[in-house]
Design a protein that fits this description.
2 copies of one chain form a homodimer. Chain A is an alpha/beta fold. Chain A folds into 3 domains: 16-59, lambda repressor-like DNA-binding domains (434 Repressor (Amino-terminal Domain)), CATH 1.10.260.40; 75-173 and 304-331, Response regulator (Rossmann fold, 3-Layer(aba) Sandwich), CATH 3.40.50; 174-303 and 335-354, 3-Layer(aba) Sandwich (Rossmann fold), CATH 3.40.50. The first copy, chain A, has helices at 16-23, 27-34, 42-55, 61-67, 86-100, 115-127, 146-150, 174-187, 203-218, 235-247, 260-273, 304-319, 350-354; strands at residues 75-80, 105-110, 132-135, 155-158, 168-172, 193-196, 228-229, 254-257, 280-284, 298-301, 328-331, 334-336. In chain A, the strands form 2 sheets. Chain A has a 6-stranded parallel sheet with strand order 2-1-3-4-5-11, with helices on both faces. In chain A, helix 2 (27-34) packs across helix 3 (42-55). The longest helix of chain A is centred in the middle third of the chain and has 16 residues, at 203-218. The termini of chain A are far apart. Chain A binds a DNA duplex (16 and 16 nucleotides) through residues 15-17, 25-29, 31-32, 34-35, 39-41, 44, 59-69, 71.
Chain lengths: 358, 358
DNA sequence: CTGAAAGCGCTTACAG
DNA sequence: CTGAAAGCGCTTACAG
């Protein structure tokens, strides 16, 4: 029978006290050496380091943070809708990178679109005394975080602003991004443009709808509520919505899909119906490989790296003591023509056909 | 000037002592009520709950775990190659779900393919006294975790087995999955089949190569080293490799891309060269939307949900005291024909043309 | 049923 | 330069 790691009786982890005993110094001297504080003679410091090495001593951060005057745990919390969503996973990675440079780790969690889960996760993170919080809010009331904020936990909101709470936030220019997408379709000769959107309770969905309406208005096109489909929460729902829209009389000639999952559904529907070369499409958010589809899918891209970096930067600035009023950073989008958005509509002019407009 | 949350002087968080003082009971009684221990009179319990409510008291988990005999922090660590890789992000989400059901949160981190970073992250997690560790190992020696394992931290490896360490692991049947992919191509009339793979230091890359060789051997086809391209670490490198392979004399008629990023590169290259309808392709790992490409891409899928669930389940079983010998779970793959893998090769028979073989 | 004392592994605030 | 005492916010192990 081999000695199996998992089954052997646990061997106690050495403490500072053990290191002190072995090296024949006081606890405080070990603490000084471990924390690289100056003012320990080379002789003692060497003995301590040797003893620590010999015992394979590793400091207990949870104990030190309890006693430390700043109480820092070198851990931050990240509340997302879903850690596996590509946009959010990319955000997570950026935040992790900024945190890592400071020796800070990230506890991330998913709350889907469940308000209660958002609060539960926030409570769980606070109970573990995270140094700060980054939140992509789901609920419509973040006032429950006010006490925690007053207790000194900095918090930054990302992608969506907080409600009933004054805090920093980093957002995408959803309205102008959507406006650009729809203006792009209009400039290619479309006037009947459908809007597909997520639940109107989500601020980004509303802002993108607002950009859509604004682009139509600027072009003197009356919005037709029959072309606006909200509360679509999955690719499948978007796929069905497209089939319905295209089967109706006076069907749209172009579609603006205001979120990545919805874009997938639209692409599926158009391919299914064999309409991918006749119905124009612009999608919001990045999707891998869509440039290889035929036609490629024209997308409005968010600056995920910029969002993640700015969010983490602000949080750590607050942790470093920045007490200026809360700020709101808004990052622009980029429209990438890939084919589907350049399909000409019935009102195309010579300019739009020759690409004189974009 | 409004009162701004972030700038107001931090208000100290209430402690158990504060609750005890306000309710006029001892610290221990508050502890009993907070931890739902029996044996407190309704009268006192009520007073304590009211005081806690009034002060907005929330327990400090980091302090309680320090003192608790089991020392549990209700936190586990997850070491990944990249939290934003779709496969790993999906794994992360599954593990989070299992953990959440037990009130446990997850600290995840990315180490890319950097051994030093793997060790640093492990150290950072151990310093925070995570209750357990889930590791997708990058390095080729996990013996550095042996002491930690003996100290009582359970650990489970996922996707790749640990080296120089006896521990549980949950893997994909890489070899048989790759064998099935290549056999599929052979049955469709291909004999010159290229293999594209990641760094040979990664166990999954080697296992998939082994499955490739095995399938060829079983079909009596001699392996041609000119068709085997290893150490490809990005889509771009795979794209270049395909261009080279197809430009060479006696070029392959089919390609097996043994990892998701590489599959993307192959698809790009084939479309670029206009060969997507003549060169067969099977890819390993899922990729969104590839079924909408023309042709759709035939894939070998891993059971990500199964991997995540099994990994987390084992970890928590160990945390619950299971001391049986370490186990190795291997989950099967599924081949999904989507078009690219069914392109017929020069040795196609009537059976392969009619789909009598899959 | 209730609580006073000790201590988890550290850092703080002093004193020498 | 070095260390003894106190204490971070809790739970443990007792005693009443």
């Amino acid at each position: 029978m081999t000695t199996h790691g998992q089954t052997a009786a646990p061997r106690a982890r050495p403490t500072m006290r053990d290191v002190a005993a072995l090296s024949g110094v006081s606890l405080k001297t070990v603490s000084r050496v471990v924390n690289l504080e100056p003012g320990v003679s080379d002789d003692l410091a060497d003995r301590v380091r040797q003893a620590a090495e010999q015992l394979d001593y590793h400091p207990n951060l949870t104990a030190s943070s309890l006693r430390r005057s700043d109480g820092k745990t070198q851990t931050i919390g990240l509340i997302l809708e879903d850690v596996s969503n590509p946009f959010e996973a990319a955000l997570h990675r950026r935040i992790e990178e900024v945190a890592r440079a400071r020796g800070v780790v990230v506890i991330a969690g998913s709350v889907d679109e469940d308000e209660a889960r958002e609060r539960d996760l926030a409570t769980a993170l606070v109970a573990r005394r995270v140094d700060g919080l980054i939140v992509m809010p789901t609920g419509h009331d973040q006032s429950y975080l006010a006490k925690e904020q007053r207790s000194g936990t900095p918090m930054v909101f990302v992608d969506r602003p907080p409600t009933f709470l004054d805090a920093d936030c980093v957002l995408t220019a959803n309205e102008s991004g959507a406006r650009a997408a729809v203006a792009h379709l209009i400039s290619h000769g479309h006037r009947r443009i459908a809007f597909l959107g997520d639940q109107p309770s989500i601020s980004t969905a509303i802002e993108r709808l607002s950009g859509y309406r604004d682009a139509l208005e600027r072009a003197g096109i009356a919005a037709d509520s029959a072309l606006i489909r909200l509360s679509l929460t999955s690719s499948d729902q978007a796929e069905i919505a497209v089939a319905e829209l295209l089967a109706a009389p006076d069907a749209p000639t172009a579609i603006f899909a205001s979120q990545n999952l919805l874009t997938i559904g639209v692409v599926r529907a158009l391919h299914q119906l064999g309409r991918q070369h006749s119905i124009a499409l612009v999608g919001f958010d990045d999707l891998p490989l869509v440039d290889l589809l035929n036609p490629g899918v024209t997308l409005v891209l968010q600056d995920v790296t910029g969002l993640g970096t700015a969010t983490a930067d602000i949080l750590f600035r607050r942790l470093d003591g920045d007490t200026r009023p809360s700020e709101r950073i808004i990052l622009p989008t980029t429209l990438i023509p890939k084919g589907s958005g350049e399909i000409l509509g019935p009102f195309a002019t010579i300019e739009s056909a020759t690409g004189a407009v974009s």
